[in-house]
């Protein structure tokens, strides 16, 4: 059963029906809001400067959304655990 599942090739069309890209985008945005708040608070505590903390948070907000979305889509192509 597991070997049969591993042999099944995933296609983009099949992948899209298991979890649509819009769902991945919404998960990405919601997670980044939480992650960015965490980063800003930690940066503020470490630097003592809210401006620096907000600058760090704004940069990581964009870069980590892109990385998470790519990570999510790659994992959606992997049949393991589906």
From TrEMBL:
Residues 25-76 form the DUF2061 domain. This is Uncharacterized membrane protein. It holds the Pfam family DUF2061.
């Amino acid at each position: 059963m597991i070997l049969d599942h591993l042999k099944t090739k995933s296609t983009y069309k099949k992948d899209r029906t298991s979890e649509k890209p819009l769902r991945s985008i919404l998960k990405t945005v919601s997670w980044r809001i939480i992650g960015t708040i965490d980063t800003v608070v930690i940066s503020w505590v470490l630097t003592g400067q809210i401006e620096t903390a907000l600058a760090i948070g704004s940069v990581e907000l964009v870069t980590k959304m892109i990385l998470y979305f790519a990570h999510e889509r790659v994992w959606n192509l992997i049949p393991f655990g589906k």
